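Sequence and fold
=================
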Amino acid sequence: MNILGFSCFNHDSAACLLRGGQLVAAVEEERLTRVKHDDRFPTLAIQSVLAQGGLTGADLDAVVFYEEPAPDTDLAETLPALLAEACGYHGALSFCDHHRAHAAFSYYGSLFDHAAVLTIDDTGGAGTTSLYVGRGRDLTLINATPHPHSLGLLYAAMTEYLGFETFEGEYKAMGLAAYGKPLYGEALQKLVSLQEDGGFCLDLSFFDFEASPLFTDKLVALLGPPRRPEAPMESRFADIAASLQKLIEDVLLHLVRAAKNQTGAPDLCLSGSLGHNVVANSLIAQSGLFDHVHIPFACGNNGAAIGAAVDAHIQNGGERSALRNPSPYLGADYTDQEIEAALKQHNCVYEKLEAKALLAKTAALLAQNRVVGWFQGRMEFGPRALGNRSLLASASGTAMKDLLNERVKHRETFRPFAPAVIAEKAGEYFDLPDSLSGHSPHMLYAATVRPEKRAAIPAVTHEDGSARPQTVAHENNPLFYDLLRQYEALTGIPILINTSFNVRGEPIVASPADALRCFQSTGIDALAMGCFLVRKS
């Protein structure tokens, strides 16, 4: 079957294509419209995944939306018309429960045959947190927490209180937490109560999730005046962020313990927006409650588009074997001819190189503390750049973090940069949870940087001695792996800064034209794109 899954009208609209049980393409709408977290109908994403799969709308056997329409909306009528306009599809449209879509992507994409499946989100249908159990092909709902008792919305409200944008700045709150102490822990415990049955309940008097801001005057009375966006960062807010992080960890561990007790499963699958909290993920992986933990590379509404299609595939009798451990490299690729045409259009100074020479020259530039744009192969799906649409730099200098922020990224100085490390060398530098078996290919876990190695990689060592590593294996991304090997041969360090190829406020670059605009308007020193090495004139 050819199945299209898509999500929209909340944030991070996306589309994916399953062809014969294979996940062949997935794209977020923001990458193509250049509007970050674009929530509009994913016309361009749908057209992109169909083009990558060599199909048209007429070739589709099923189309699935990532949630069931609320009774007070007209989605059941408007979506078919939008689909017909986008791709010429005139068949039936199916709907998947939002949390089931999250759970399906996580469970069916794992290597597990018996797992607790926990989805922890902000909103989505009538629930906010759901527990399923997966056994073989079956995925069964155990219980759900009703709206508005939402850990994701609590996190969004506190993110707004800290002066960051909701549904965008939560990772900033997590990064800020490393600079504070949980001095407000007792105060924040008033916001949520843990229940004996394994659930939780918010004190809704602190929140107004239908308004702006999402918090009430009662929260201000509890914690003091909120921070204005872009205002200087006071130590009080770092302490509140640290207290918030501790609260989130406590609630998540409470939910995970309940998941173990209620399912008895040996392994755990996580998804939903809280799956992006890498510090909490590591605590869960280290807890010993489950043998192994799996989190998909796209935990949000983008990944739910895949989950909706995957669930339809299984419900229609499809096998799950081809769905296990999918690659995140699901976007468009570009030919050398397409890249060179863009280079000429932008009047670039460039040279065309064989792969070996490209790797050698790029590694040499990185060893000379140059910032290099790395644009190769198919675009990543999800929030992380994983070595195909990346900005790379040396992790060895103390000044590199500030240099990247000043010349390219223009983001808050308290936010850490992540390392990419040769998979076989990861254990020498990072203390990853045993349940991960040394693998963290999608930057979903925090790890302690070994004390004796911190001086060697200060640019990726966070204030609390942690890092968010991407372990790079040859079988997953051979070209990026070989670049790390070349860099290690020159410097003795098997690690590079790997941050997303974009500037603040923009999505990750998708096309050669996007990459060149970013390259030419920032302090990036060189750009390795396809077989071309581009330099500033």
Q: What stands out?
A: The chain is about 35% helix and 20% strand. Residues 336-535 form a domain with the DHBP synthase fold (CATH 3.90.870.20). The chain has a mean pLDDT of 96. The longest helix spans residues 235-263.
